[in-house]
Amino acid sequence: MTATTAKIYIKNLRHNLTLIRSKISPSAKMCVAVKADAYGHGAIRCAKEAVACGADVLAIARVSEGAELRAGGIKVPLLMLSLCSPDEADELVRLDITPLVFDFEYIKLVEDAAKRAGKADYAVHLAVDTGMGRIGCLPEECVPFARYISDSPFLSLGGVCTHFAVADSQKESDREYTQMQFRRFLHATESIEKAGISPGIRHCANSATTLDQPQMHLDMCRPGIIVYGYYPDELDRAYFEAKGEPIDLHPVMALTTKVVAIRGFEAGNSISYGRTWTSNKKTKIAVLPIGYADGFFRRFSKAGGFCGGIDVAINGKPYPVRGRICMDQCMVDLGENSGVERWSEAVIFGPEESGAVQTAQRLADETGTIPYEITCGVGKRVPRIFVE
Is 282 a catalytic residue? Predict the structure, then answer.
């Protein structure tokens, strides 16, 4: 087994899924996002756990992701949140993936694929752009699209959806914007109903609104980052505690490696590319076989923390990364008498039980990003080890 691994704590995943399901309206379905390899956590295993914990639908972003899940034995409905290319349309239908559609050209693309496959009433979901500015028709344009889908012998309107832009913000202007988006979405679905067409499953709730806005649950919620143990941006643990509705999410992934060498350094020795750090006293330097190709990004070298760099946990204690992180390796300052030995485990980030001194949230905070990017960035060459 390679020294660098991503440990996936299944009990934490189950805890989060069970908690989320308890927060969703009993009449609403749960659509768990397992796109991007389940945010880096391993799509097939996470998908199976999600279904076991009550997921009715799984959300993906690529036809290839759907193919992986189907090959892994996943049979529940798959909802694709991005668009496929014309070359993938037949595979999409063959795998029984429900696409989002929003213009006549793309609707026709899926319709033709369903026709070639001999399908009748192939379900699609109409995406409505209420203010995200990504994909979707405008609310006032939705009825003609819904009617075309409903009238097609090869298609059926399985649902209508939208996506919120700032639901994870505490700013009053952003909260008003989210409410405006919700009103526009309800107007769109009501206009479809008034036209005599069933909108099918109405869904708009992301992680933030799943936890914070139960009136937005409608017929289905789409939790994402909260499944993997991280709060939706500004709606953090403190926010829910202050609201009187504490939410206890547990991080699922720990990124770990091992000390492969320990070298003694005298004062005046520099470390790594660019000679950005030079020792000012005698010390020991540990070499770790992890770098930016594994998801331990180069920018973490300057991420604040102790002495201008991010810390790594070894034996439960923090040790600072020194010098620039390389593609495959990095160096950590142990001091003279740390007690750390060759082959000791080093934890980059993870839940408390992993021995980590930080979560992906802290790495994100230190580097001006979000935990989604940290976990999704863990490279494919890093094995996922599932810990019960």
Answer: no
